[in-house]
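Appendix B, Record 12. Input sequence as logged:
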Amino acid sequence: MIEHAILLSAGQGSRLLPLTAEIPKCLINLSGRPLIAWQIEMLARGGVKHVDVVTGFMTDMVEAAVKDISDERISVECHFNPFFKVADNLGSCWIVRERMCRDFLILNGDTLVGEDIMGTAQQGGSNGPLGGGWPITVTVDIKPAYDSDDMKVTRVDERLVRIGKTLTAQESNAESIGLLAFRGEGADLFREKVREMMRMPDGVNHWYLKAIDMLADTGKVGTVSIDGMDWAEVDYLTDVEDAGELTESWARAPRPSE
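Logged structural output:
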């Protein structure tokens, strides 16, 4: 069971303007709670006991919202990314690289996943190089077709071959939903790749999934499918209604302790 998660919540969410003119994306209200509160709730239900949140845009508001979350199951700590305006999310990973010293999950700040998906991600697949979970596992969904904004994946069985938005339709057979698991040497491989890439002249321009793409050739990056399970990405204004319907279903359901 992975008990540590990193939540990447530094961005404003400019594609959600005017909704995010005065609040960051992670504080959008969904069914009476900010998006980040739903994320932390589901991480707790998935067995996570500590979350490192990387903040950026309006960090004071995010830190205050996190302080308002009182949950005995989980502790949460914020880490400010001072160059969130000029660096992509590889920079947010670099900010918390020293926290990548044991097994951990990464969850994108705009991805909503439920208990079933958390449980699937925790399993880590079954066909890793040692017959167990993969050192690095990318949680993926399956769609009939993929558009230019999807983080597309090429995989052979469970093994990840490529990941990126520029993959062609012919190359793509899955989509990354923004939830990854790192186990054993996977944590070390990713941390070192983040360090290496941020030393490059164009390091600040990369998504962290570029590091995953570069690690694919090691044969230690796998995938696990959540096909048929409900999740949401809050990236555009049109996504907010769908995300609200998902969180409303969570709000109606009894909590595990009830």
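The CA atoms of residues 27 and 76 lie 16 Å apart.
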